[in-house]
Specification:
This protein has 14 helices and 21 strands. It is α/β, with parallel strands linked by helices. Strands 1, 2, 3, 4, 5, 6 and 16 form a 7-stranded mixed β-sheet that branches.
Length: 470
């Protein structure tokens, strides 16, 4: 059996693992990267990339139906579902070289394509090899959860790992789960000509601001997506049409079933207990520095048991690299933006209104700016949405946006909140006209307007100065 000694062993070649491996290798560390599945992990192969490619095709199809107000005759698009999936596959293939084994070997990383299993606090068994490392990073990602619903084992179940391989258009897609994945797939498939029913056990988009999520859900319903809230799936049965799902007093019959009911960290094969790594129901237990109960071992991304975002995994990589390579104290911050890529998009950074009211009470001010107030939105005929700004003591504490390109707009606020900027900084930024981000500046300015224009003291001071100034 071959024994490999290295400075750093990274387990998992998804976003977090690849970022750690690339950064460490380029800074001179000896790095071993372990991956049994596809390089690039879930994000490239079954998550962010294919879903956004599918959404782009669906958006193009919907645009053909809705251009009438712009003076262009709308038409019902002819959709080649298999060709749409070819577009998805091409998108993955175009990005794959950046995450490939060849690229990482070119950086000096030794890549082992097999499952890894801890056999001691400092050793990982990888096939017929044993890797001994000064430090390990668990970056194994997560897997979709298929809930134990009676009868679900008797039907074919699609998850995000399998739905993008489907080349024949479903007649009726039933989706169990009303979170971002379920809602994105609902809108994409509906726009591509599929009848869609979403079953949300409590509320759809439950982690977002209800006022903003209502805008998105209203759009989906207007486009023909049926969304059942407060109706958990109680039973699944095969039937001549495909599948039947019982939810509340409804029996929904569909041709295909997609389960988007959450994810759990993928740790089954790793045997973290053999390394003295403590694991909870949420994932690997880590401290603010992302270190586990074994000081040799760190965990990043979905494996670390927190929020499950690709950009968070990449950020985690930067945190652990500082600690592993330079011995510097480094802690993960909590201000992580997230986006649901529907149309309109739904973005959030910091506190929602409900969270801000609970934390700041009477000191909170909530400012709302409708997207219809944007000249750019008016020019493009896309005026549905809202920017909501939460302010306490003159500083932004949270921003919720439902708007076209909300995922791009939230970047300004991510920078502001991360840097602790005052609201006056955002209000004073000069932005190009016409852009949607003017809405963000307008929201910031709305905080100061009543203080300036409704103040008798300011008015008196201005009139006095006008008499005194030459």
């Amino acid at each position: 059996m071959e024994r490999i000694e290295t400075d750093l062993c990274v387990i998992g070649a998804g976003s977090g693992g690849l970022s750690v491996a690339a950064g460490a290798a380029q800074m001179g560390a000896r790095v071993v990267l372990v991956e049994a599945g596809d390089m690039g992990g879930d994000c490239l192969n079954a998550g962010c990339v294919p879903s956004k490619a599918l959404l782009a095709a669906a958006k193009a199809a919907q645009a053909m139906r809705t251009v009438g107000p712009l003076g262009i005759r709308p038409v019902e698009p002819e959709i080649d579902f298999a060709a749409v999936k070819d577009h998805v596959a091409r998108t993955i293939a175009a990005i794959a070289p950046h995450d490939s084994q060849e690229r990482f070997e070119g950086l000096g990383v030794r890549v082992l394509r097999d499952w890894g299993r801890f056999v001691s606090p400092a050793e990982l068994r990888v096939g017929e090899r044993t890797v001994t490392a000064r430090r390990f990073v668990i970056a194994t990602g997560s897997r979709p959860v298929v809930p134990s619903i009676p009868g679900i084992d008797r039907v074919e179940v699609l998850t995000n790992e399998t739905i993008f391989a489907l080349r024949e258009r479903p007649e009726h897609l039933v989706i169990i789960g009303g979170g971002p994945v379920g809602i994105e797939m609902a809108q994409a498939h509906r726009r591509l000509g599929v009848r869609v029913t979403v079953i949300a056990g409590h509320k759809a988009l439950p982690k977002d601001d209800p006022e903003l999520s209502a805008i998105v859900l209203g759009r989906l319903r207007a486009e023909g997506v049926e969304i059942l809230e407060g109706a958990s799936a109680a039973a699944v049965d095969p039937c001549p049409e495909g599948i039947a799902v019982t939810a509340g007093d409804r029996r929904i019959v569909g041709s295909h079933l997609l389960v988007a009911a959450g994810r759990r960290p993928a740790l089954e094969r790793l045997d973290p207990a053999a390394a003295g790594v403590e694991v909870t129901a949420k994932g690997v237990k880590v401290g603010p520095d992302l270190r586990t109960s074994n000081r040799r071992v760190y965990a990043v991304g979905d494996a670390a048991g927190g929020l499950q975002f690709t950009h968070l995994a990449g950020y985690h990589a930067s945190v652990v690299i500082r600690s592993i390579l330079f011995g510097l104290p480094s802690k993960a911050a909590a201000l992580i933006p997230h986006v649901t890529y529907t149309e309109p998009e739904l973005a959030q950074i910091g506190l929602t209104e409900a969270e801000a009211r609970e934390r700041h009470g009477s000191r909170l001010e909530v400012l709302r700016v409708p997207v219809s107030g944007s000249d750019r939105a008016q020019a493009e005929g896309a005026t549905e949405g809202l920017v909501k700004l939460m302010v306490a003591r003159g500083r932004p504490v949270g921003v919720s946006i439902a708007a076209p390109h909300a995922g791009e707009m939230i970047g300004l606020w991510a920078m502001a909140l991360a840097s602790g900027a005052k609201l006056s900084t955002v209000a004073g930024v000069v932005l190009p006209y016409p852009t949607l981000n003017e809405l963000s500046k307008r929201a910031a300015g709305a905080y100061f307007s009543p203080r300036l224009f409704d103040s008798r003291l300011v008015g008196t001071a201005v009139r006095t100065l006008q008499r005194l100034l030459p």
